[in-house]
Design brief:
40% of the residues lie in helices and 21% in strands. By secondary structure, the protein is an alpha/beta fold. The strands form five sheets. A five-stranded antiparallel beta sheet has the order 2-1-5-4-3. Strand 9 and strand 10 form a beta hairpin. Helix 18 crosses helix 20.
Length: 525
């Protein structure tokens, strides 16, 4: 190859280089500049020939290379407003330094992309959703802080490891990344992490320009709070639907005040004060109408659960075929006729609150078994469900029957009885607490006069008749009688003659008063 051909060849090589090339002589004047350098310095044609490089690049350091003879590699500098990387090398001929060569690489776009990359990394890092990235082989390549906080796993444990190995080591029970690798499409699943957090996991495939799978980006969103809100909304909706339900009762009703003066009921009150603060199950037993529901309310109001739900369930009032679904709830489509949305049960609705199981002796044996399991395991499983739900309720059971006799007759489970009757409280009949008849009469008389806006009085003779009556229906009978007299008797003052005959007869009225005198007395009233 001749010298002229070689020179021409090297000229073509330098001209075709993507990076800018500038050659100066010993006087720092430009001998050669390729097209890339010309575009960067914005010079045209041969306007650069023979000019000092300082005229085009004022802060050039080529003179240092010429004088010192040492190369300068990888120096960043701004040329014509663009970020560049410059390499400078002395040029020798026959052992004599005759000039220098500068190779200039425009890195402004590289810096731009690096800046974009840093910004994207910041966006990923500060995203409130957890982000998890694996490559086409299922190897973890990136994890952000939110993912660490949601899952409790540190990125050092995950990055560089295959997803299959992480599953084998128990980090995950399933992987949306592996599902996306298999299906090559976007997939979302619901997961529970650590038994506490509910998350929705979405895997998105990323393809290159050739349509090949390059990586999978998985987003993880903590929906525990949203699920909590949804459950609260479901509870609120269910409460709303139950406003007039026959087997629920509302706390705070003024007519439910607990009125007593007698020693027997005072003893009951003191016992309730003692046990109410504890979550112990309580069994209330006594004749019908003695106010067991009022005492159940009192237990709830004296406990730490007083701001939580109080639900009264009459086990004898709900038809047996419906009782299980009402108590335990059901999942969507659990049985023919079930709501497609499922239903929350009364026990679950009372979570963290108090449940009064009235007429507990009427609970079918099959449901006694399920209730016992709820009390023992403190969790509930809806009909048709597979996942147990944690449950924290306090049970107050009530009955007017002797449960021990029911156990002997095979109609009530002994193990359930001992679960319910941790504390037994006997409610005396009204006949056993006659000191309370007067205060109860005054209370209900004032209550119904105020409710119906009626101004009436009750005579002393009538009070005495009521005091002498034996009240087989207990407090309920007394309350109903007072309401009846207030709304049905036209007289402003209620006299003994206004009372029902069976009460007058039982109270031994004055035999000297004839029927005619009674009628006249009634008419005068």
């Amino acid at each position: 190859m001749t010298e002229s051909v070689a020179v021409h060849l090297w000229g073509n090589i330098i001209s075709s280089m993507h990076n800018g090339v500038i050659v100066v002589n010993a006087d720092n004047r430009i001998l050669l500049m390729n097209e890339s350098a010309q575009r960067l310095l914005q010079v045209q044609d041969d306007a650069w020939v023979g000019r000092s490089i300082v005229q085009l690049i004022p802060h050039s350091k080529m003179h240092e290379v010429l004088s010192g003879g040492e190369s300068s590699i990888g120096e960043k500098m701004v040329i014509s407003g663009r970020a560049c990387m410059v390499n400078r090398t002395p040029l020798y001929e026959n052992g004599e330094r005759v000039g220098a060569v500068a190779v200039i690489q425009d890195i402004s776009e590289m810096d731009h992309y690096r800046s974009l990359l840093q910004q994207m990394e910041s966006v990923i890092e500060f995203s409130t959703d957890g982000l998890y990235v694996v490559d086409k082989d299922g190897v973890t390549i990136q994890v952000n802080t939110a993912y660490e906080e949601i899952t409790g796993f540190r990125r050092e444990e995950l990055i560089g490891r295959r997803m299959k190995d992480l599953i084998s080591d128990g980090y995950f029970d399933q992987s949306v990344s592996l599902l996306v690798l298999e299906k090559r499409q976007r997939i979302s699943i619901l997961q529970r992490i650590g038994g506490k957090k509910d998350v929705i996991v979405t895997g998105n495939p990323v393809f290159d320009e050739q349509g090949e799978l390059e990586m999978i980006v998985t987003s993880v969103r903590d929906i525990t709070h949203l699920n909590g809100l949804r459950q609260e909304l479901e509870k609120a909706r269910t409460f709303s639907q139950m406003q007039n339900n026959r087997y629920t009762i509302h706390s705070g009703d003024t007519e439910q005040s607990f009125i007593f003066h007698s020693p027997p009921i005072r003893k009951v009150y003191e016992q309730i004060q003692q046990v109410a603060p504890y979550p112990t199950s309580i069994l209330l037993y006594g004749p019908s109408g003695t106010g067991k529901e009022v005492l159940a309310h009192l237990i709830h109001d004296l406990s730490e659960r007083k701001e939580k739900p109080f639900i009264q369930i009459n086990c004898g009032a709900i038809p047996e075929p419906l009782l299980e679904s009402e108590l335990f709830g059901y999942e969507p489509g659990a049985f023919t006729g079930a709501s497609r949305n499922g239903k929350i049960g009364l026990l679950e609705l009372a979570d963290q609150g108090t449940v009064m199981l009235d007429e507990i002796a009427e609970l079918p044996l099959a449901l006694q078994v399920k209730l016992l399991r709820v009390l023992q395991e403190k969790q509930l499983q809806r009909i048709g469900g597979t996942k147990p739900r944690r449950l924290d309720i306090r049970i107050v059971a009530a009955t007017n029957q002797d449960l021990r006799k029911q156990i002997q007759a095979g109609r009530f489970r002994e193990d359930l009885f001992y679960r319910l009757a941790v504390v037994e409280i006997a409610i005396p009949s009204l006949a056993e607490r006659q000191e309370d008849i007067g205060p109860l009469t005054d209370h209900y008389f004032a209550y119904f006069c105020r409710q119906y806006r009626i101004d009436k009085q009750i005579s002393q003779e009538t009070r005495q008749v009521l005091q002498n009556y034996h009240w087989p229906g207990n407090v309920r009978e007394l309350r109903n009688l007072i309401e009846n007299m207030i709304v049905s008797v036209p007289s402003r003052v209620i006299e003994p003659v206004h009372l029902p005959p069976h009460i007058q007869d039982r109270s031994q009225p004055d035999a000297g008063v004839s029927l005619k005198e009674r009628v006249q007395q009634f008419e005068r009233g």
